Amino acid sequence: MFNTAAQCLQAINDCLQGVGSAPAPSFWANIVARTQPWAYNQIVMVLARRGWLIAQIIAWDLGPTAEIDLTVFRSISQAGVALEINEDRIKSLDWREELKTVELTINGVYQDPQGTAGQVSGGEISGLEVHGERGRRDAGSIWG
User: Fold this and answer.
1) 45-63 burial, b for 16+ CB within 10 Å, e for fewer?
2) DSSP secondary structure string, the chain?
3) CA 33/CA 75 separation, integer angstroms
4) pTM of structure
5) Cβ distance 42 to 96 under 8 Å?
6) How do 129-131 and 105-106 pair as beta strands?
7) What residues are paired with 129 via a beta bridge?
8) What is the pLDDT of residues 35-90, one digit of tens each?
9) What is the mean pLDDT of the chain?
10) Are 42 and 100 contacting, i.e. CB atoms less than 8 angstroms apart?
11) Domain boundaries in the chain?
């Protein structure tokens, strides 16, 4: 992931304070534990589908910003329904459509996609065992 959970929680606190709410209660940490991986995977999935390699994606200049915005968007959308935050403000944090057309830069330099558009590029994940007729993967053996 691009950011730490603490950075995402701080962004939520900033958003809440911006609308006059108290700092985020501790339950937000559990929400971020679910929404931050979702945000990261949205970024990787869309950009990889467009042809960028994971090495390019994780070095993307706007990666940390996109991940924080998507994490805050998803967190508030799921758990902050009782908060009085302007719906347009929440929607402005949703990068999903923008990811379909955004250009990728690393250190300010445009990057051409190095993979194949429409095909997620990746390597083999070691330590996984295949079980059952559908090939469910189990990582239990790698955890000891």
Assistant:
1) ebbbbbbbbeebbebbebb
2) --S-HHHHHHHHHHHHHHTTPPPPPTHHHHHHHHHHHHHHHHHHHHHHHTT--HHHHHT-TTHHHHHHHHHHHHHHHHH-TTS---HHHHHTT--TTGGGT---EETTEE----S-TTS----PPTT-EEETTTTEEE-GGGG-
3) 10
4) 0.76
5) yes
6) unpaired
7) 138
8) 999 999 999 999 999 999 999 999 999 999 999 999 999 998 887 655 667 777 78
9) 81
10) no
11) 5-143
Listed in sequence order, the residues at least 6 apart from 69 whose beta carbon sits closer than 8 Å to its beta carbon are 11, 39, 93, 94, 95
pLDDT in tens, 84-102: 677 777 888 999 999 999 9
Q: Residue 75 and residue 81: Cα distance in Å, rounded?
A: 10
| Cα pseudo-dihedral 103, 7, 91, 25, rounded to 10 | 170
- Give CA separation, 1 vs 18, 19, 54, 81, 142, in Å: 26, 28, 11, 26, 21
